[in-house]
Structures are given as C-alpha cells and as structure tokens.
Design a protein that fits this description.
Blueprint: H1 3-23, H2 29-36, H3 42-64, H4 84-100, H5 104-112, H6 118-149
Helix pairs in contact: 1-5, 5-6
Length: 150
C-alpha cells in the first residue's frame, strides 16, 4: 500500500474519532470535568463502547488475518512492564487531564467545535512532550558517555 493511502486512512480514522468525540459531547471540558466530579457518567458509557470495539478488534482481527491491513506488518504484541516511568508518567498525565478537563484526543476535537481556548492546553501538551524528550535524550547521552568512559 502506498504512503498516501496509509495517510488517507489514518486521516479518515482521525476524522471519525474527532466526529465521535464531538457528537458525544466529550470534546467539551465541562462534560469531562463533570464526570471527574462524579456528576455525569456519560463519559463512562462512551469509554465502555470504545473498549468493546477496541477489545473485539484487538483479540479477533489477529485471528482472522496474519498481517495488518494498512501497513502489511505482522501482528505482534508489545509488552510494556510496569516500571517507575509508566507510573510517574501516568500520574502526570492524569493530573494534567484533571486540571485541563480534557485528554489529548478530545483537546484536538474541542478545537474543531470552536473551543479555541483549548489551544493553550494543546500548546502545553506540546511543550510538555518537548521537555520530556529533552530530559530523556540528555539522560541517554549521559548514559552513553558513562559507558564509553568505562
């Protein structure tokens, strides 16, 4: 499959995802915050529906096909161990989600429905990802230098 077709399919998936978030009102921070404050459980039903579709695809598709339909790559599971980076990163992500009232995917969809104040949140996500990349690459450089000196 050509790169343009892959990009078109990825784009179409993003449009479908964004439309779904907008349609279900999950692109509105006040809806997400009301869920986090235990007032409105609509987000729980949206997440449950997404989990059913994802779980079905995750377990059924590899049994029906040998390769991924878009990339042609063989299916393989990437096992990630629960380490301190996962716990700390998940905690930071959760605090950011709670403070902004919206997760990254919904933040982009929120821009699509005219909530332009969310640009601050998206800029913050990019800044946080950049800082994390700088910290991680400097730590990797220090590790390389330490092993090269040995």
């Amino acid at each position: 499959m050509t790169d343009r077709r892959v990009l078109a399919l990825v784009y179409a998936g993003g449009v479908l995802f964004g439309f779904g978030l907008g349609f279900s009102h999950m692109a509105r921070p006040e809806v997400v915050l009301s869920f986090l404050e235990l007032y409105d459980f609509g987000l729980l039903f949206v997440m449950f529906g997404a989990a059913i579709v994802t779980g079905t695809a995750y377990f059924a598709v590899p049994r029906l096909r040998d390769t991924a339909p878009i990339t042609g790559s063989a299916y393989a599971r990437r096992l990630k161990t629960l380490d301190k980076n996962v716990v700390i990163g998940g905690g930071i992500f959760g605090v950011g989600w709670g403070l902004s009232g919206i997760c990254p995917g919904a933040a982009y969809a929120s821009l699509g429905i005219g909530n332009y104040i969310m640009l601050y949140g998206v800029a913050g996500m990019f800044a946080g990802a950049y800082v994390q990349g700088v910290v991680r690459s400097s730590a990797a450089d220090e590790t390389k230098a330490a092993t090269a000196d040995d």
